[in-house]
Amino acid sequence: MLDAIGLDDDHVLLYRSLLAAPSAAPDELARVTGLDSVRVRRLVDELEGAGLVARQASAPDRVVASPPSLALRPLLLESERRLAAAHEALVHFSELYRHGAEQRAAPDVVDVVVGPDAVRQRLAQLQASALERVDVFVLSEVALMASQDNLEEERALRRGVRYRVIIESEVAQRPGFIDSARVTIAAGEDIRVLPSLPTRLFLVDDAIALLPMYSHGPDRVSGALLVHPSGLLDLVMAMFGEYWSAARPLLGPDEPSVSQADRDLLSLLVLGMTDAAAASQLSISVRTVQRRVAELAERAGVLSRFQLGAEAVRRGWV
Questions:
Q1: At a CB cut-off of 8 Å and minimum separation 6, what does 65 contact?
Q2: What GO terms in the biological process aspect are recorded for it (predicted)?
Q3: Which of 187, 257, 284, 303 could be disulfide-bonded to 157 (CB atoms 3.0-4.6 Å)?
């Protein structure tokens, strides 16, 4: 609750207990909170040092809670000041990085990350920094980390980051994979399948890509290439788009079909009608057509109307 100002759950539990009582001794707090008495005494000292509790003048072994408006406000203001300073530093560093990136020569558009641990660390950083989308190739034999160890993916999905994952068909045959996939799909992840893929890939916000390099040792990953904005990154993005369009949904048979109204709209678009013509035929507004097309494209995981038409035919929507 107050971890942003350095207080963990035990600190908060103790402070809440003191707020509800006129005063208390450490042993009493231990009974009320269920915490170990030694732990309680240490927490009381830490809360006192933070100004959240004070010793009772008439009984120094007892403590009282300081008013939250007096005790917490300075801590929160200091935390906000530090956060604002960190944000300013981020903006400044990002500008420096952008300026440096503009001066990159052709060989500088790729960084080399050496060692499996460094690759896993960079992968976690990339996912933690994702704002909108992470695109992934998953190979059957080479893995950077087990899915249950990829905690940043779960956090990113909770933030609303969209994952588009293409797996090799053998991956879907792993024990328990489908049950696990249902959970991540429900959390907002799209999973599609192809018989084979050319490489392992992580593409974050169409801004940076990580391509692992393989070895034959026990770790199987000796390093990775980090691709910055460039023609090479554009090529990686285009490659992912082509593979995504060709892949089939992992749980396609369970996917609900589109409505008849959407089928009618898609049929008109496949025929090459403009938004205005389709709107006139369906007796709806042009804005409604555009909204429904955008929703269908999002559902199909495509970026253009042409791709939507092809995907609609492939999925049997028209």
A1: 15, 18, 19, 52, 53, 71
A2: regulation of DNA-templated transcription
A3: 187
Average pLDDT over residues 166-189: 84
Phi/psi at 173 (5° precision): -90, -5
Which sign does the torsion angle of CA 187, 188, 194, 200 carry?
negative
CATH 1.10.10.10 holds for 1-103: yes
The CATH 1.10.10.10 domain(s) of the chain lie at 1-103, 260-315
276 vs 94 pLDDT, higher one: 276
Backbone angles phi, psi at 182, to 5 degrees: -60, -35
Cβ within 8 Å of residue 177, ≥6 positions away: 171
Sorting pLDDT into bands at 50, 70 and 90, what band is 254?
very low
Predicted local confidence at residue 133, as pLDDT: 93
- What class does CATH assign to 260-315? mainly alpha
**DSSP of 95-150, one letter per residue?**
HHHHHHHHT--GGGGEEEEESHHHHHHHHHHHHHH-SSEEEEEE-SS--SS-GGG-
Long-range contacts, stretch 254-259, CB < 8 angstroms, 24+ apart: 255/315, 257/316, 257/317, 258/296, 258/317
Please tell me the CATH code under which domain 106-254 is placed: 3.30.870.10
